[in-house]
Amino acid sequence: MSDASINSPKPLPFVQINAVTKRFSANGPAALDAVSGTIETGKITGLVGPDGAGKTSLIRLLTGLSRPSEGDVLIEGKGAYASQHHLHKMLGYMPQRFGLYEDLSVMENLVLFADLKGLSGEQREETFSHLLKFTDLARFTTRLAGALSGGMKQKLGLACALLTRPRLLLLDEPSVGVDPISRRELWSMVGELVDDTMAVVWATAYLDEAEKCDDVLLLSNGKPLYAGPPAELTDTMTGRVFLARVPQAERRAAIAPLLRDASVADAILHGDAIRLLTREDADLSHIRTLVNAEIVPAAPRFEDAFVDRLAGGPDGRSPLADAMSRHADAGEAVVEARGLTKRYGNFTAASNITFTQKRGEILGLLGPNGAGKSTTFKMLCGLTEPSDGEGRVAGFDLRTAAADARGRLGYMAQKFSLYGDVSVAQNLSFFAGVYGLSRQRARERIDAMLEAFDLTPYRSTTAGQLPLGFKQRLALAAALLHEPEVLFLDEPTSGVDPITRREFWSHINALTAKNVAVLVTTHFMEEAEYCDRINLIYRGRTIAEGTPEALKASCSNADGSVVTMEDAFIELVARSEQEGAAA
Amino acid sequence: MWRRILSLIIKEMLAIWRDPKGRAVILVPPLLQLVIFAFAMTMEVRNVDIAVLNHDTGNWGRDVEAGIQGASAFDEVIGLQSVSEIREAIDSQRVIAVVHIGQDFTRRIEAGQSANVQIILDGRKSNASQIVNSYLSAIISRVSAAAYSGGTMPDTIRIRHWYNPNLEYAWFTLPGLVATITLLTTIIVTALSVARERELGTFDQLLVSPLRPLEIVVGKSAPGLIFGYLHGTFFILVAIFGFKIPFAGSLLALYGSMFFYLLAVIGIGLLISAISATQQQAILGAFVFASPAVLLSGFMSPIENMPGWMQIATQINPLRHFLVVAQGVFLKDLPLADIARNTFPLVLIAMATLPAAAWLLRKKTS
């Protein structure tokens, strides 16, 4: 690099991405479409975008493992694909799916990767002890990698990628499946690493992480939306973001008219307020007429800018509401958990979980991976039999009337789990049949759902070929065909783009108006904000319960300043650990 | 309830047919098996070469040599000159066997003493050499019968093979194939069915629906039954019209027995599927079951030759029972009582495996 700087006034960037396009088949859609950008040494460059944006495709181009269809990736001025061999010596790569051997211990994994990279002798010992200390894994060297928590796995992956100190560190979504505490630790670890000799690429779908990067490359559907420091993009939104303090009872109803207004680009539930993003040159006094509450300016976030680049949020209409009939509400509990406990051998995955959920309520089971929220969730929708305790759905005991209970709940799994090889209509008529809808009724409901989710043009499309957002709509449509009284959602919007997420939650809001109860599991703080009530589960127990505001209030700083959901989560977990230690 | 099951069956058929891998599983193995079993796999030995080292100058030695030369099983009969050539001929796999006739062969016969012929076989090809040995023994015993009865070659034993007069190997294989192919198809189709859904994540979606475990089992059994019958029928037609094998028995009885046979196999397939987390495991499980099932069915080697405890163990192998029915009905119009006697164990196997699979499907979810 120093050679280059002699001739040119500005030194060449470490990595230069020049109008790169990547197609996986000659006439197929572009996974990356004319993406340009730079990656500088000494900086964390965020590769930001929802699932399917092209992050992994770009990372693979950076590793030299695949070749761009057009354009080129230059690393220190050399083409990445052509100089693969040379490149791999200076590269540390942590793939998205845990790339380690789950049946080997932490130490065996390190030794294996050290052997592969030809690291030996004294240098190896030094590196090991340094990395184990750095990642705080020294206590766990004999544990099988498969038995580590999500956060520890990622730290081990990071340690393996760092064995021969790389000059370019590529991290593909390192924070997926990692609880907020470990996520913070990962960030500070990587922050420590970056120096004059190393460049880091951090791919993520979480927009709050984008703000922590020095530079970002924002992608959507393979197209570049922005390249540069994140703050510069966020700052363009200054003066356009407001909080409207609408009373909680009216909040859901207030959002739809706001979104429908031409001067509002985006409106979402945020803590004890509605967060508004106005269009450029919007008239604030006009907005004040839309909502009967105090409106105060707020600091913009990266997400606001992203939504703005994507031309604003959805219009807040949910034709779905018209397609659903209203369930009667006698104020009774529709989901009841009483002392639910699940033991696997001598490990208790969930212990004495008790709560009730009313009709029309959104209840969130929040907790890190492996904390027991999924186990609780599975017990309540009949996927796992509880070892102890009782669960009821719509009044039916899950043990004695399981099929009746199951007939009254709708379920949407985390990843798209419909039949990818058959058409949209065939998927729906299968579920209609399984839920025992009569032929006549099935036809009506399927048409109504296709209409409500704008799926009619895709009727005979193979489900697997739908765009990501439409897959999610189809999954929701399938779960709602039989008009369930409770909807179970397993991490419904992790990884989807902000527009799809907003659209999804506007459907959910519309459902609650029809008295459908919604039970959500999530480890995603933003989803937690949408819930009416949160049950925070950690190490198999409920450690806190209440509205999102109440949880945040219980952790507010000494000076009374507001904390984020993530802060509250970390604080509550820390308190529970202290109590555990004291007991 | 039937509406639910029917939806599931339609979905199962669509899922198999729309999935290119599913289609391959349905179409490729039976055709491959047909070619392999019907044309390549035969217990007869044909087109082998053999060597004769005849040190005897008398007429009885010549008769043995002539008998070998006249046998249709042997392609070429090479005459050796010395004992030292024997090793070379066998080692180089030039011939599968060497017949060594001593120089006193005729003299001893004329003197009324016992005379010996040495047969050296290539033990590396144990099956084929056993068969060659029996051909050779037959030839030699004919010579010796003539030698010790005085003058002319006798023609005392006439063998009649009932139900397969010309000992056509295809007559034995193809009815057996009706049984083995349907086993392979059915076990793979059913073993994959739940595992495929587990892998795609759709199985949870099924389990949270009002479908009861028994309904899932019924729905998951249907494709196995349908494809089992389709393949069975295909091979029956190929046997009758392609290989001109006479069909002696009642087609209805064969199809009736096949129903329980398929249920028994489906039960095992679903058990494999219930304990598999991925399609790969399911395929592996299917083969772990299918290869011993075929080997220990009596199709490859007679059950009577197995040790006693193993003969008992073969009772849980559905193929063993149905093979008797398929071959019996095809070639000799097996009486209904015998069909029932061989179908009964199949009913028992199905009654044990299907409920076990239903129970396991729900148990093994998390």
UniProtKB/TrEMBL annotation, chain A:
Q: Which of UniProt's keywords are assigned here?
A: ATP-binding, Nucleotide-binding
Q: Does the keyword Disulfide bond apply?
A: no
| SUPFAM superfamilies, per database record | P-loop containing nucleoside triphosphate hydrolases
Q: Which Gene3D superfamilies match?
A: P-loop containing nucleotide triphosphate hydrolases (3.40.50.300)
Tell me if DNA-binding is a UniProt keyword of this record: no
Q: Entry's InterPro entries?
A: AAA+_ATPase, ABC_transporter-like_ATP-bd, ABC_transporter-like_CS, P-loop_NTPase
Which molecular function GO terms apply here? ATP binding; ATP hydrolysis activity
SMART domains in the record: AAA
Q: Sorted alphabetically, which PROSITE patterns does this protein's record hold?
A: ABC_TRANSPORTER_1, ABC_TRANSPORTER_2
Record protein name field:
ABC transporter ATP-binding protein
Automatic annotation (TrEMBL), chain B:
Q: Name the PROSITE patterns on file.
A: ABC_TM2
Q: Does the keyword Membrane apply?
A: yes
Q: How does it sit in the membrane?
A: Multi-pass membrane protein
This chain belongs to which protein, by name?
A: Transport permease protein
Pfam families in the record: ABC2_membrane_3
Q: Which domain of life is it from?
A: Bacteria
* Gene Ontology terms for molecular function: ABC-type transporter activity
Primary location class? membrane
**Subcellular localization:** Cell inner membrane; Cell membrane
Regarding protein family, the annotation reads: Belongs to the ABC-2 integral membrane protein family.
Q: Which residues cross the membrane?
A: 21-41, 169-195, 226-247, 253-275, 282-300, 343-361
Q: Which InterPro entries match?
A: ABC-2_transporter_component, ABC2_TM, ABC2_TM_bact-type, ABC_2_transport
Look up the signal peptide feature and give its range: none
Q: Look up the record and report any one GO term of the cellular component aspect.
A: ATP-binding cassette (ABC) transporter complex
Q: Per the database record, which ranges form the ABC transmembrane type-2 domain?
A: 129-364
Arranged from A to Z, the UniProt key words for this protein are: Cell membrane, Membrane, Transmembrane, Transmembrane helix, Transport
